[in-house]
Amino acid sequence: MKQFKCSRIPNKINMMSKKMKYFQVVLLTVFTIIIMSCNSLKTASYDQYSYQKTTEIKVDASNLIDKATTSYVDNIEAIESLNLEIQKIVAYEKNKPNNEITYAMWKILSDSERNLLVGFLKYWKENDTLSQLFVTEAKTQIMEAMDLLIKYEGKKDKVSKDKLMGIINGN
Amino acid sequence: MDFKEILKELKGELLTLFEEKWGDLKGESKKDVEQFLKDSKDKLERWTKLLISKDITLDDYKWLIKSQKDLLLMKALHKAGVSKISLGHFKNKVVNTILNVVTEFIL
After folding, report:
1. Strand, coil or helix: B21
2. If A44 and its partner were Cys, which of A6, A23, A86, A99 is the partner (CB 3.0–4.6 Å)?
């Protein structure tokens, strides 16, 4: 009888070990699902169109701001064209999923009540012409803001590249 | 012109304004005001000199000060976005590690 009991002990240990492993696997799976479903950590992937368009708008804005020492009325066509491009990119960024940060940055740049890109155009319109020194200082502010947007989109590049490499390498 | 004196005065005025409006956030507002002034010190100094020498108007000066506030907001958003990307990377690494461990257990 005693011998019989002893022979069952390794079996029991084996069963317990299997149960423990099973429990750990379930626990890790649940943890993985929780992490993967964490939406607040999701960021829109790098977007070539956004990067290119933002860079184009920056160059156009830079050239236009330089003309702010001349009459607003004389530049109305270029101003309207830039405004239209800004409206297009804002609408585009608004509808991209997990893109809250880029959209929030564009909202600031395109808000005429704030003092960056579109706010500058409004100030130009109110004054018709602006002084060279003011234009230089304002341009530095606007270009700095636009660089932040471009740099942020560029940062996303690494994420999508890593994802792509992961797929290629079968990870 | 003693710009340090102007900056000190400005800091005092801003803190009083914050305390009057948001008394409960006294500690936080002090930190915010100090950070704003620290980040903007060189620009504020340059713009104040331009205003005093009448190279820019008071409206230009106001516009630039407000643009600095909006720029700092953009910087805060950029910082938050970059942190989010880093956390996303970390999340991917955690998921990959878990998957490797689980695969080892099963196979």
Report:
1. helix
2. A99
DSSP letter at A157 equals: H
Is there a single domain that holds both residue A16 and residue A96? Answer: no
Q: Which of residues 70-109 of A touch B (CB under 8 A)?
A: 101-102, 104-105, 108-109
From B56, B30, B28, select the one nearest B43 (Cα to Cα). Answer: B56
Same domain, A108 and A160: yes
Contact B78, A147 (CB under 8 A): no
Is the residue at A42 inside a domain? no
pLDDT, tens digit (0-9, with 9 covering 90-100), for B44-102: 999 999 999 999 999 999 999 999 989 999 998 998 888 877 777 676 677 777 777 77
Tell me whether residue A84 is in a domain.
Answer: yes
ipTM given for this complex: 0.74
A50-82 per-position pLDDT tens digit: 999 999 999 999 999 999 999 999 999 999 999
Nearest by CB: A141 against B57, B71, B101: B71
Residue numbers of the domain that contains B73? 3-106
